[in-house]
């Protein structure tokens, strides 16, 4: 039986991860400290060590991070949090497995048509990607040296119920909803020609769950994608069709700095399949239906 300490349980990925953990009979307890209990961004390492001693977890899962903001903010949220977790777990819970979420943004520009694997060069083109690559590399070094049982999940483009407007399809859903309410003839988004690998957030949560209970790990970095690439335009058009919106989708806004330079990306997910027996089971249409339906319910 396993006690899991989960940071970021109120976020998009964290909520689904918590649901997957709590529904598994092998989980003894899922402890989800809010920011008032301990703030991973600003909290002192000594206080984090005290939380770990008190909880005595078998596994620590971190779903806290930042998608946007200054380089300083991104490094603090994605790199320094990783450092803080490694140091605190080493001092207070050395037996615990430590799982963090990285990003496909760590890879940078990928050759069109190629599937990028964990062994391919990581050459991020934004502060966001750099901030995650540093955290992933620190976890990889700790895991390979035996300093900590640490593993990173490079998340591609997670979608599903409860997606944030910081993500393309969350933003598109919000604008379609506004347009439908006001009978607007068009919505405006950024460029939609890039190819992206969209993975259902429930499939991602299933991979995290698998890592929680995997007995031993040969590798310390795993891709979490669908293994398929479609244009952002195709995904948005499918969302519009699901919503019953027939207006124009205009591409005029600026794209997000973290990914504008990347025109193609698709995950090679064979490592997770070979080592963990994980592969995604949900298709893009089902995920996009959840994006739309969950927003209608709010």
Give an overview in words.
The structure is a single chain. With 298 residues, this protein is of the alpha/beta class. The chain has a domain of 185 residues: Rossmann fold (3-Layer(aba) Sandwich). Helices cover 42% and strands 17% of the residues. The chain contains nine helices and twelve strands. The strands form four sheets. Strands 2-1-3-4-5-10 form a six-stranded parallel β-sheet, with helices on both faces. The longest helix has 22 residues. The radius of gyration is 19 Å and the shape is globular. It starts with a strand and ends with a helix. The relative contact order is 0.15. The model has no long low-confidence stretch (mean pLDDT 96).
In summary, what is this structure?
The protein is α/β, with parallel strands linked by helices and 298 residues long. The protein is 42% helix and 17% strand. It has a domain at 2-159 and 199-225: Rossmann fold.
Task: Reconstruct the topology from this structure.
Layout: E1 2-7, H1 12-22, E2 27-31, H2 45-55, E3 59-62, H3 71-92, E4 97-103, H4 127-145, E5 149-155, E6 157-159, H5 168-182, E7 186-189, E8 195-196, E9 198-200, H6 201-213, E10 221-224, E11 230-231, H7 232-243, E12 248-251, H8 270-276, H9 284-297
Parallel strand pairs: 1-2, 1-3, 3-4, 4-5, 5-10, 6-9, 7-12
Antiparallel strand pairs: 8-11
Helix pairs in contact: 1-6, 2-3, 3-4, 5-7, 5-9, 7-9
